[in-house]
Amino acid sequence: MKIIDKLYEKVSKNGFVCIGLDSSIDYIPENMKAGKSVSEALFSYNKEIIDQTYDVCAIYKLQIAYYESYGIEGMIAYRDTLSYLREKDLLSIGDVKRSDIAASAKMYAKAHFEGDFETDFITLNPYMGMDSIEPYEEYIEKGDKGVFVLLRTSNPGAKDFEVLPVDGEEFFYKVGDKMRELNEKYIGKSGFGPIGLVVGATHSEEVEKIRKRYDKMFFLIPGFGAQKADSMNVYKLLEGLNGGVVNSSRAILKNWQNYEDGSEKVGYYARKKAIETYEEIKANEVL
């Protein structure tokens, strides 16, 4: 089964929530850190959350910067978490936002689609051009890997470049159209292809147009949770509650901090928040 069809099935079964394992030592309760190295503490924290949420989310996203910041110890935790997800037949996104060309891009592809840091999907920054995307095609062609390419992000600085006018419309549409053309070569049985887009849910005036224009592309949707994107925006970026995954990181990871007994029930409260996230967005279906 192609990886994009597997993701589609996961969303159909478990819902569209993507849990961001952007784990920091600061997020981990003292009782879970005692006597552990940095790598052991990060991995045990991630494992607790995975074990309690695997049936209420579609996929897990690891922002590599959180692990790189702890050096070798952090990258051991990154490796071990990805290995654990593969062992459990769970899907993963390596949020690495790579952007380079030629041989360097090929090495990035090898680094994150093979070996210690292997993931099912990775994020890419396309702003060096199509030759920064094409080196990943040899993996995409096989059907078992996919990418999410930055399109319309939710950060305030997105206005600096993404929305600059080009031929009468915003620049990001030019990027999306190029990715759509490439994606058409690899459409799966689900009707979607493995070249997805990162589309923030904070721009209410654009979401319907983006969803319609890129109807065969899966979306990775940030902005909900800590960035307070409107749930209706998120709903409009989905397609029948599928066609995208909605990332939430800190709101889920740190939910235990909102409860007196939270330090003893980290996974339980992560699960609770993941379910609440799904239900809040799904509620727009009846509006």
Automatic annotation (TrEMBL):
The keyword Signal does not apply. Pathway: Pyrimidine metabolism; UMP biosynthesis via de novo pathway; UMP from orotate: step 2/2. It comes from the Bacteria. Residues 16-265 form the Orotidine 5'-phosphate decarboxylase domain. Its EC number is 4.1.1.23. One of its GO terms (biological process) is 'de novo' pyrimidine nucleobase biosynthetic process. The active site is at 97 (proton donor). It catalyses: orotidine 5'-phosphate + H(+) = UMP + CO2. NCBIfam families: pyrF_sub2 (TIGR02127). This is Orotidine 5'-phosphate decarboxylase. It comes from Anaerococcus prevotii (strain ATCC 9321 / DSM 20548 / JCM 6508 / NCTC 11806 / PC1). The gene is pyrF.
